[in-house]
Amino acid sequence: MTLSLTERADQSGAFVAHAQYGGLELSATNRGPLAGLTCAVKDFFDISGIPTGAGSPDWLVSHPVPQSDSVALTRILAAGATIIGKTVTDEMAWSLLGDNHHYGAPLNPKAPDRLTGGSSAGSASAVANGLADIALGTDTGGSVRGPASFCGLWGMRPSHGRIPLDGVVPLAPSFDVVGWFAAKLEHFCATGPVLLDRPRPGPALSRLLIARDLFAAADPAVRASLEPALKQVVEKSGATAVEITLGPLDDWRKVFSTLQSAEIWAVHGEWVTRTKPNFGPGVRERFAAASAITPEDAAKAETQRKDIRARLDDLMGGDAVLLAPTMPCPAPLRAASSEERDAFRARALNGLCPAGLAGLPQISMPLGEADGAPVGLSLIGPRGTDEKLLDLVRRLKLR
After folding, report:
1. Cα distance between residue 103 and residue 122, in whole Å
2. DSSP, residue by residue, 129-173
3. CB neighbours of 344 closer than 8 A, spacing ≥ 6?
4. Phi-psi region of 55 (alpha: psi -120 to 50; beta: other; left: phi over 0)
5. Is 61 exposed, middle or buried (0-12, 13-18, 19+ CB in 10 A)?
6. Cα(207)–Cα(229) distance, integer angstroms
7. Please, which residues have CB within 8 angstroms of residue 169's CB and are 6 or more apart in sequence?
8. Closest to 327 in 3D by CA, of 377, 367, 366
9. What are 181's strand-pairing partners?
10. Distance between CA atoms of residues 164 and 334, nearest Å
């Protein structure tokens, strides 16, 4: 039996109840580069007259209904797309799993026994289930890149600061970015110029760096699956490829986690203390740990971030593209234990944190499959080379 779009949307679990699929249709014009396309929006973006829930029932009832649209939403509408609903997110966007204690786990149609990844879980699910052509998410620690890899989608984390965050719930401001998903490359590439601010001049991307340590850290099945795509990138780009080692990734992850947690507490600590929200497992413990980070801890981590940023800037210059598995493994099983989920989170952040720490743009390309589930290959560019990365994937025509 063929399901209607509304029935498929209900089955997907991708949309929030207060702005569900079929209950919202916003459009400003039928002209522009996104004309005729539908867009789903993570429930971190303000839409005038509609509550923003941030994945938390307590946030939903303790904050006023927005009276204006987020800048990113305004740009999508002005480019001709139609907004069709708001999507489920991990609680306060502080997870990489896509399983909200209060609202459930959206369906990953490419691997139904596995999670979508988070925190932009519903946005990835909406596109993967064919309910939206494009979808907006946010990426602080990997919340677009991870779900894109797990759901077989194109996904981008832009350079930090390239897309305004006005009207988006903050998490950790020095890491937060607006990102997007698409199933089709042409839709993915068309969305970039709509959202990105101020194209930046610079040299062409002419070198390829293969992150030896990130490939070594991935599952053997992931490495084997991505090898043909890696060879294609090298051959079709015509660029010289060199294997490199990024650095002590366990240490970099700890720097990222300290800074992220300190910023999250600075942004939300007063609300948490006053409201005492009923956080789910994992999120509850992370907020408790964040409250204990000292200014000295944060200052030390900030100094270390500057060193990491300098290391990556020196490595990449203005013209290199770094290639790496987006995630070290396929999506965790929906039935994974809390211990397995914690281990996955630490392992995944090792590969996700470099772009976040240095504010670099990263595109996850849906070019592999391991253990019957999608896996992505990533291109990471120097800061500000977002358009050049988009042009590169367009020219490569890998899918």
Report:
1. 11
2. TTS-SEEEEEESSSTTHHHHHHHT-EEEEPPTTSS--TTB--SST
3. 96, 97, 329, 332, 336
4. left
5. exposed
6. 17
7. 44, 52, 54, 59, 93
8. 377
9. 135, 155
10. 34
pLDDT band for position 3 (cuts 50, 70, 90):
confident
Does 119 participate in catalysis according to the annotation? yes
Q: How many residues does the chain have?
A: 399
Instruction: Go through the domains of the chain in sequence order and give each one's CATH number.
Output: 5-195 (3.90.1300.10), 207-250+293-396 (3.90.1300.10)
120 is catalytic: no
Q: What share of the chain is helix, strand, coil (3-state, %, to 5)?
A: 40, 20, 40
Residue type, 134: I
Token code pair at residue 27: 């459009």
pLDDT digits (tens, 9 = 90+) for 143-182: 999 999 999 999 999 999 999 999 999 999 999 999 999 9
Catalytic residue among 70, 119, 123, 237: 119
Options 56, 95, 120, 143, the catalytic residue: 143
Based on the number of CB atoms within 10 Å of its own CB, is 88 exposed (0-12), middle (13-18) or buried (19 or more)? buried
What's the pTM?
Answer: 0.97
Task: Supply 111's token pair.
Answer: 């691997």
First-to-last alpha carbon distance for the chain, in angstroms, is 30
Query: b or e along 308-335 (b: 16 or more beta carbons within 10 Å of the residue's beta carbon)?
Result: bbebbeebbebbbbbbbbbbbbbbbebe
Closest CA to 286 of 338, 250, 333: 338
